[in-house]
DNA sequence: CGAATTTCTTGAAGTAGTTCAAGTTTTTAC
DNA sequence: GTAAAAACTTGAACTACTTCAAGAAATTCG
């Protein structure tokens, strides 16, 4: 049931059997229905989510009242608002299930205790976080150097199944252009 | 001499005296001259830099041959290409000193050994990396929701000394608009 | 199933930015 | 201190995208 998380952890570190037991006894699985929020703007985010199945997006509502997706999380990704989580300040973001989703939700206090009991988890989270940061650096690069059309094709080439999986207007805003323009790109009218 | 780093580490974790000694004996200070590179596109990045004094920027050369600054690092920041570092793949970026800069440069092999000898450093790097990731999430938000003029004023309000410190064209590209447009914003001609 | 809702498409008009080219000012380096 | 290089400014022409409005298609759900 928590196998995807253990598999992911074991890509980076080795856990003792006793640590596996400890971890297993602490975790709980939650189900989030499509469109349900696990975080809303203004709330303090004190939970970190590991996605077992489904998809969660981080989005904001911009000054024109439109939703803008900033990030997607899918299977085997951690997602949270790290700034709100670490600094204990109100979040600027929404976290919402794009599909019916199953997550392991870990409260900050629970995770802090786990990290003290299983110090090698610090290493796991350090590596995962640095790798995710590296991916974000590339994302900034793509946003800065590619045209809207290039960004669409690049994303579509790398994640074709994902493009089928979520509404196009979410992908459009994630790639920083309008849903209408995406429609025109897809139709070859640009 | 390494005090800024120890001060920074001690904001997040407690080190034993023996660990301080160990760390101190491992570190070396390097000086990087203005405009000198510590990483060039295509190289594999196997070093992580802590900036004691000065400024380093991460930039790319876009398809039109123009430099585009993606990130700045100043005093008390760690900077590297995390994707190249972790995945051992050629970097997409340049890392260049914007001013004469002093850094603690730690080789990956040295850092790996240190992390084994001083496990609590895992915790330090985990926290720093997650916080930096949180800051990057906000950066994406600003890029997505503010106009060029808003981004300029926001940045100028938050980092007025920094805006004085580095060439304007680097800030313009960091904020994702042209140097000419920045000139017009500053002159109030927009 | 059928109604309601959500998502996608299309064209026309508008605009926030870029690009180019040339001149001016500031900084660097011998 | 002065020549060269780097950084900044300005205006005019252009363009990659947005916005709006309306209709069509697909999906959801009682």
Main attributes of the structure:
alpha+beta; 4-stranded antiparallel β-sheet; globular; 8 strands; 9 helices; Jelly Rolls; 190 residues; DNA-binding; homodimer
C-alpha geometry of chain A = globular
- The CATH first-level class of the domain at 3-118 in chain A comes to Mainly Beta
End-to-end span of chain A in angstroms?
47 Å
Kindly name the structural category of chain A.
alpha+beta
Largest interface: A-B, 41 and 41 residues
As laid out across the biggest beta sheet of chain A, the strand order is: 1-8-3-6
- CATH homologous superfamily classification of the domain at 3-118 in chain A: Jelly Rolls
What pattern of helices and strands is seen along the backbone of chain A? HHEEEEEEHEEHHHHHH
Q: β content of chain A, as a range?
A: 15-25%
With helices defined by DSSP (H or I, 4 residues minimum), what is the helix count of chain A?
9
Write down how many β-strands of chain A occur, each being a DSSP E stretch of 2 or more residues.
8
- The stretches of 5 or more residues of chain A where confidence is low (pLDDT under 50) are none
Chain-averaged pLDDT of chain A: 96
Summarize the biggest pleated sheet of chain A. Answer: 4 strands, antiparallel
| CATH topology name of the domain at 3-118 in chain A | Jelly Rolls
* Quaternary form: homodimer
